[in-house]
Amino acid sequence: MPVLVASDLDRTLIYSSAALALTMPDARAPRLLCVEVHESRPLSYMTETAAHLLTDLGDRALFVPTTTRTRKQYQRINLPGPPPTYAICANGGHLLVDGVSDPDWHAQVTARLAERCAPLAEVQDHLMATASPAWVRKHRVAEDLFAYLVVERELLPEEWVKELAVWAENRGWTVSLQGRKIYAVPKPLTKSAALRELARRTGAELTLAAGDSLLDADLLLAADRGWRPGHGELADTDFTAPAVTALPERGVLAGERILREFLKAARTTTAPGTERQG
C-alpha cells in the first residue's frame, strides 16, 4: 500500500458515551455502532457512517491503529473490517504484527528508555507520595513502560498537574491529562518512532495521522499530513503545524470527519497518474 494511516483511537476514532458530544436534537443523532465491550458492558462507539468509511479506507490504505492503550486494552476493541496487520500500542512501546508484539522493536524501545529516562519506579513512587486519595481512584502501570492515574477530574488541583509536569520534565518524562486519566510517559516512548519504523518496513509513499492529545503531537508532526479534532488537549492548546489541519467537529462526529479526510487523501494519492501528495 502506498498510503499508511496511523490514527489514535480514543476520542479520535472511537468514543465513550461521555465523550460522544451529541449536541444535536435527539431525532437527528447519528446511529452508533458499539466497537468495545468491557466486563459485559458497552464501552466505546463510532457512528455507523464512520464504520463504513473505515472499511473503505482499509481497501485503499494500510490502516494502523495507534494507541496509548496496553495490548490487552487494545484487544478489547472490535473495529469494522478485517483485523489490521499492524497496530501500535503502549504509545509506541509495542509494535503488533498480526496481533503479536515484535520482540526486536520492544527491545529497542526498552533499551532507549533505560539510557535516557529516570526509571519507572521513581515516577511511581513520586505519584504515590504526592497524589491525594481524595481525588485519585486508581494507580496503574502500563506494560512496565509508563504510569497513569484515574482521577476525579472536578477535584483534581490544576497546580498539582503543573508541578508534576515540571518534575517529570527534569527526569525525561512528559505528562498528559486525558479525560479522567493523567499519564506520565517517558519522552522517548513515542508513537512517531513506531510510525517511522512501519513506514520504513512497508515502503509507504504517504503517511497520514490523526490524534487529539499531547501524546499525539509527535505522531502528527511525523506524518506527511495530520488532522486533529475540535476537542482534546491539542485543541485546548491551539496546537498547529503547517501539515496539520485543525477540524471544527467535536465528539463522535469528529471521528467521522477524520475518516473522510483520510479517504480523500488516500484516493488522491492512489488514483492512476497522480503524484504523491503532502
Provide structural commentary.
The chain is 34% helix and 25% strand. It is α/β, with parallel strands linked by helices. The strands form four sheets. It has a five-stranded parallel beta sheet with strand order 4-1-12-13-14, sandwiched between helices. The protein is globular, with a radius of gyration of 18 Å. Mean pLDDT is 95; it is low at 271-278.
Q: Helix amount, in percent?
A: 25-40%
Helix/strand/pairing category: alpha/beta
Element pattern in H and E = EEEHEHEEEHHEEHEEHEHEHEH
**How many H/I helical runs?**
9
Q: Please report the total strand number as a whole number.
A: 14
What order do the strands of the largest sheet run in, or round the barrel if closed? 4-1-12-13-14
- What does the overall shape look like? globular
How much of the sequence lies in strands comes to 25-35%
Distance between the termini: 16 Å
* Low-confidence spans: 271-278
Mean pLDDT: 95
Largest sheet: 5 strands, parallel
Rg: 18 Å
List keywords for this structure.
9 helices, five-stranded parallel β-sheet, single chain, four-stranded antiparallel β-sheet, 14 strands, globular, alpha/beta, 25% strand, disordered C terminus, 34% helix, 278 residues
List the helices and strands and how they pair.
Layout: E1 3-7, E2 32-38, E3 41-47, H1 48-60, E4 62-65, H2 71-74, E5 86-89, E6 94-97, E7 100-101, H3 103-116, H4 120-130, E8 136-142, E9 146-151, H5 158-169, E10 173-178, E11 181-186, H6 191-202, E12 206-210, H7 217-222, E13 225-228, H8 233-236, E14 244-246, H9 252-270
Parallel strand pairs: 1-4, 1-12, 12-13, 13-14
Antiparallel strand pairs: 2-3, 5-6, 6-7, 8-9, 9-11, 10-11
